[in-house]
């Protein structure tokens, strides 16, 4: 009897935690909900729901992007999977030992992340890839709950300014004191380190605002910080 009660409580806790960081049927943003509905009608084979995070919740490295791409995560149901932005990201993740493969094609490709998790500041695809400030703030509660579950020594990588600002807001910090900048490093409390990078979007990579070498430099900083934090927080 007691064991059954424990199992029920554990199941309830897991369900509550899951809802706190992600809700598959969230419709709190009318514009995004309408856009998802229209997208599903246009592309019935697409996922067209809020996109959950990908990777182990206990991973030491969390990547935060902007939002699902229309023909990427919105189609496949996995962050940065199936679109241009994911090409450089997963190649770099694989090179640095965070991914089992260098290409992310679909949720059925058997790709695994290692000590890494990927999420987005906004869980639903926005029209023209541009969420409103209000939509970002509404979705921020999910990101905040996800960030609060991180452990001391963890590293967060913000891909772009919107992701960076969303992270700073999640910690109730002042944006003016934590400016976004490529390769900027911020200590955001509770033993957590935030590292910034330009987003690995098609525009940024094709215009050379973000090169492969620059992106790899960011990941070198991530791995160095993880190694340093491991020594610091294990001593």
Summarize the structure.
By secondary structure, the chain is an alpha/beta fold.
Question: Could you give me the name of the CATH homologous superfamily?
Answer: Uracil-DNA glycosylase-like domain
Q: How many structural domains does the protein architecture include?
A: 1
By DSSP (H or I, 4+ residues per run), the number of helices equals: 8
Query: Helicity, in percent?
Result: 40-55%
How far is the N terminus from the C terminus? 42 Å
Helix and strand element order: HHEEHHEHEHEEHH
Low-confidence residue ranges: 1-19
The largest sheet, given as strand count, sense and whether it forms a barrel, is: 6 strands, mixed
**Cα radius of gyration in angstroms:** 18 Å
> How is the CATH topology named?
Uracil-DNA Glycosylase, subunit E
Describe what this molecule looks like in 3D.
This protein is an alpha/beta fold and 235 residues long. The chain has a single domain (28-234), classed as Uracil-DNA glycosylase-like domain (Uracil-DNA Glycosylase, subunit E), CATH 3.40.470.10. Helices cover 43% and strands 11% of the residues. The protein contains 8 helices and 6 strands. Strands 1-3-2-4-6-5 form a 6-stranded mixed beta sheet, with helices on both faces. α5 (133-148) crosses α6. The longest helix is centred in the C-terminal third of the chain and has 23 residues, at 212-234. Mean pLDDT is 91; it is low at 1-19.
What descriptors fit this protein?
235 residues, alpha/beta, Uracil-DNA Glycosylase, subunit E, 11% strand
